[in-house]
């Protein structure tokens, strides 16, 4: 096993090899240290003044880009980057991949893979950056990409959804709030064919460089069997699958709870489990919202002056969607979470593009939120499934 200085020296040589270097990603932090960036990405670019090393450093708000001409300037930049106490480095060259993980004892764990090689992409103005390489072989393994390694046209919408969801996951996970003394525990509730499950595992382990234990939950036995077989074929030992309902599957807890398009109140089941576990991070993209819609439809008279709107089925359906997620967000806030409701992917890829993104703060319930929630539920005569699952009163 090489010493840490020797391992960093090897990475230095790879990055400064302007003819073979493809890309490098640094993430995480060594034990009892801090780093100024959430993630650092390096790659060669061809500019008018010659080949440069481009550095893109991400903080919690934005990306900071700089270019250094290969030679003394690039050497100085690389030395400065390698001096930062990142916990993980992933370096790709045309000859293969080298991954460095710094253990809790400050020792270097190095893995080399000659089977995964890439080609240099030297264009300065690239298309939108992807959190995961569309050519990564796992996309083919899960059926998103075809035998030619390209995303199947018929699966492009699903690819865009998953890629956007993982991008939101990346933005949500704050390094300082991740466990430093054990693997990150992630649960994907209602995983189905597990496209998101596999993508999240790949991203968290390879790009963020984290130790991860990820569990996919689905009620179908065939889903568990298929997904387990694929994980074994890929050699991903930190990924496992269990058969069971979202509400009742045998899972002890999680740091991160994911749910992509769990139908109707299945999203409420996922949110309720996350709250019960006091999961620090929750990302859920709801699907259909039949429960509240049915409760509204059953009302003899809607509250004034909304009767005109509810005469139209499509408007009633869309309003029920908005009301459902509004009440879910309120309940999560009252359970100690900071909640954002955002559009995570364009509507051309799915009309179900709302994402509830919650980070646990432990804040006390807000009386103003309680009052607004109570007024909404009383006015419309509804009780959200999530309130029932959490045994919450109507405030």
Question: Which descriptors would you attach to this protein?
Answer:
single chain; 395 residues; alpha/beta; Rossmann fold; 2 domains; seven-stranded antiparallel sheet; 12 helices; 14 strands; 35% helix; elongated
Q: What would you say this structure looks like, in words?
A:
By secondary structure, the chain is of the alpha/beta class. Helix content is 35%, strand content 24%. The chain is built from twelve helices and 14 strands. It has helices at 4-15, 72-83, 137-142, 156-172, 195-207, 221-234, 266-277, 290-297, 307-310, 313-334, 367-380, 385-389; strands spanning 21-27, 39-47, 50-58, 63-69, 88-93, 96-102, 108-113, 184-189, 212-218, 239-243, 256-260, 281-285, 337-343, 354-360. β3 and β4 form a beta hairpin. The mean pLDDT is 90.
Spell out the blueprint of helices and strands.
Layout: H1 4-15, E1 21-27, E2 39-47, E3 50-58, E4 63-69, H2 72-83, E5 88-93, E6 96-102, E7 108-113, H3 137-142, H4 156-172, E8 184-189, H5 195-207, E9 212-218, H6 221-234, E10 239-243, E11 256-260, H7 266-277, E12 281-285, H8 290-297, H9 307-310, H10 313-334, E13 337-343, E14 354-360, H11 367-380, H12 385-389
Parallel strand pairs: 8-9, 8-11, 9-10, 11-12
Antiparallel strand pairs: 1-2, 1-5, 2-3, 3-4, 5-6, 6-7, 12-14, 13-14
